[in-house]
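Worked example (supplementary).
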Amino acid sequence: MNSTKLPLIPADLALRAVQAEAASADVELLLPGRPEREAILLGIAAVHALSGRGWDLAFARERVSVTLPGAGPALDLMAMIPVAGPILASLAHGFRRTTVMLAPGILDDGLELISTWRHEGGHVGQIRRGGLMWCIAYGVVPEVVAGAEAPCYGADIAHAVMLGAADVAKASAAVLGALEHYGLDEDSMKLARGIVLSNADSVRRGADPGDVVADTRASLRAAGWVG
Amino acid sequence: MSSFIQQITPIILPFIILLILALAAPIVREAYRMLRSVRVRLRSRAAKASIDGLTVLAGTAVAAAADEVRTLKDPTKPGSWDRATAARIRDRVIGEVMRLGADFIAQIKSLGVIDAGSVYELLERMVEAQVERLRRLDPSSSSSPLLSADLEEPRPTMAPSVLRGSTIPISVAPPPSEGQRGTVRFGAVAVLLALGLGALALGAVLSGCPQVREGVMRITPGVPEPSVCVPDTQRCAGAVPEVCSRNATGTTRWWPALAPRLDGTPRVCAGGCSVSDAGLAGCDPVLPDNPFTADGGAR
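After joint prediction of all chains, the assembly is encoded as:
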């Protein structure tokens, strides 16, 4: 296991690495300041206001990163709906491709930026594999949320430990705490916990789970990192 | 800092529903147009049948009055013919038509094709038309203008065929014209949106049902197939650590512990996978190259 602290990852270098990966993977990268991000956050806030679940818009503006499925050809069909269709399609035009919207609060920390990107990259892969149906299942089935989120949080543990010299137990506790906020039922939380513990165990053994950190290193090196 | 697809999904769902509605909209629009057309046609047919019935009654009543009128106009026979007599007989004929055709009139009123105040005017014109018709059929009466010659004010002449139509204030809604095709009134859009919101609400309700959730999972690409396993246990499926889940339906399945790559391909443990004594499946570190085999073996 490589838990020694590596050279600092400059934020601008991490951003270049993320942008290069996004471009090569045909992913729309939405950086803070774009109006679409604000629109989405306000939409989430509205949904949460209706559902009664807690939602701190100020926190979300600063800290929440989002991955959205690309509408693709669905937008063309949507535009055919008389009157409302073209308006909706124009609003959603930015989401023609799968889109990752990064939170402003992570842009100043190179490690947090690149690990967040890798986490969202896991969701990009899940959406590529499962399509819109996956997103629907994610929205209505807690078990799918657990099966989707926990592996991505497992990647967070690997990055925190292998690139940030964090303690495995603390990193694991942090991500398990984060998973508590997903509204999982007991069975789904058990699944999430099992997946997180599996990744943590891999890192303890000195392994890079699925070469997720190796991919990040390669990406950073391609952007000029010397770690 | 994590992903919030779950929180985004309620926003995406209306888009998906709108997509479905987009596919269904032309069908709904066409069905709506057809229903409206059928309704208009039925209304028109019912109105036409009632007017035809009244026309027949008016013709019968006029024919019955014709002999009386001829008698009154004949100087060799008793009685006299003047304006007052003409008005009286006309009103009597119209009254007979109203009495005998009460059902037809009620039908016309119920269809909304004519207001109550116009019924008398309609019958009056029907009687006039039947008088004109009778005059054409009976050339001998040309010199005897029967009722119409003595009307106080000239009225537009209407051929019998016109009575089947709409010179009189009949407001049968016309079927949608060609130019209206392809347009959707705001109400129709509102209905579609309401349907979408209804579907959303229904989906929200159904999503709380374990069987529905399980059904959704079974048709979702990327969700593992159900498999027999002991919940919370872990295993290595080749080079992939997996965790057994169980949901409210009792269904169990093996979930991979590794997130996929950006392109959706699954990740695997480069150094292999093993299950620890604690029962945790995890990746093993990649072993460094054996220095003794690098140069061809032991010295």
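Two points are worth noting when inspecting this output. Residues 109 and 115 of chain B are 6 Å apart (CA to CA). The first strand of chain B starts at residue 234 and ends at 237.
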